[in-house]
C-alpha cells in the first residue's frame, strides 16, 4: 500500500495510540454530493472499502464513531449495517460532541482520531490526537491535519485511515494473514 510507505515517525506514534476513530460523513464517508429523488428522499453513496476498513478497526479493538452536522436516514442505515454504536447526527458543534464522547468513554484526546473534509471539522481535529484530512479537503482543513489521504472522500479515503491505524498498531500482518 503506497500510502503507508515512508510515514513520519510522529504520525505512526500518533496513530498507534488511537482507541477511537471518528469520521465526518458528507465529503468524508461520501463524496460530498447530496442526492435527492423525485420524492424528496435523500440518498447517499458509501464506498464498500471504507466499510470493511471500519469493520476491521472494530475487530481490532478500535471503537468507531460518526459525528455529522446533517441528519440523514441513509447514515443511520449504514452505521447500523457496520455495527457503529456511536452515531451523532445534527451536531452543530462537533468539538463539543467529540469531547463528550471522549469523556463518556474515558479516553484522552490523544487516543482519538478525527477525519474530515470541511470547516466544521476543524474544531474536533484540533483536539484529536490524530487529525486527518481527505485528499479533496478544504485547504484550511488540509493545513490543520497531521496526515492527508491520497484518496478523496467517498472514494476509499476512510479505508486509508483505517489501514494507517492498523499499520501503526502492528496489526497489518495479522490482517493480511487473516485473508490468505
TrEMBL record:
An annotated Gene Ontology molecular function: 3-deoxy-manno-octulosonate-8-phosphatase activity
EC number: 3.1.3.45
Residues annotated as binding substrate: 26
Principal EC category: hydrolase
Pfam families in the record: Hydrolase_3
Entries under InterPro entries matching the protein: CMP-NeuNAc_synthase, HAD-like_sf, HAD_sf, KdsC_fam
Domain of life: Bacteria
A GO BP annotation: lipopolysaccharide biosynthetic process
Cofactor entry: Mg(2+)
Functional summary from the UniProt entry: Catalyzes the hydrolysis of 3-deoxy-D-manno-octulosonate 8-phosphate (KDO 8-P) to 3-deoxy-D-manno-octulosonate (KDO) and inorganic phosphate.
Name the UniProt record assigns to this protein: 3-deoxy-D-manno-octulosonate 8-phosphate phosphatase KdsC
Amino acid at each position: 500500500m503506497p500510502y503507508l510507505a515512508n510515514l513520519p515517525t510522529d504520525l505512526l506514534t500518533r496513530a498507534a495510540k488511537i482507541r477511537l476513530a471518528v469520521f465526518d460523513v458528507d465529503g468524508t464517508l461520501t463524496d460530498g454530493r447530496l442526492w435527492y429523488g423525485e420524492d424528496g428522499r435523500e440518498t447517499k453513496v458509501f464506498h464498500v472499502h471504507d466499510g470493511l476498513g471500519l469493520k476491521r478497526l472494530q475487530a481490532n479493538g478500535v471503537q468507531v464513531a460518526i459525528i455529522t452536522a446533517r441528519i440523514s436516514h441513509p447514515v443511520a442505515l449504514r452505521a447500523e449495517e457496520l455495527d457503529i454504536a456511536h452515531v451523532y447526527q445534527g451536531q452543530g458543534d462537533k468539538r463539543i460532541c467529540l469531547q463528550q464522547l471522549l469523556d463518556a468513554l474515558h479516553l484522552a484526546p490523544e487516543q482519538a482520531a478525527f477525519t474530515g473534509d470541511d470547516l466544521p471539522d476543524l474544531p474536533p481535529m484540533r483536539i484529536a490526537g490524530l487529525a486527518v484530512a481527505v485528499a479533496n479537503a478544504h485547504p484550511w482543513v488540509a493545513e490543520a491535519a497531521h496526515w492527508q489521504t491520497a484518496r478523496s472522500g467517498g472514494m476509499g479515503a476512510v479505508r486509508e485511515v483505517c489501514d494507517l491505524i492498523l499499520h501503526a498498531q502492528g496489526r497489518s500482518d495479522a490482517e493480511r494473514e487473516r485473508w490468505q
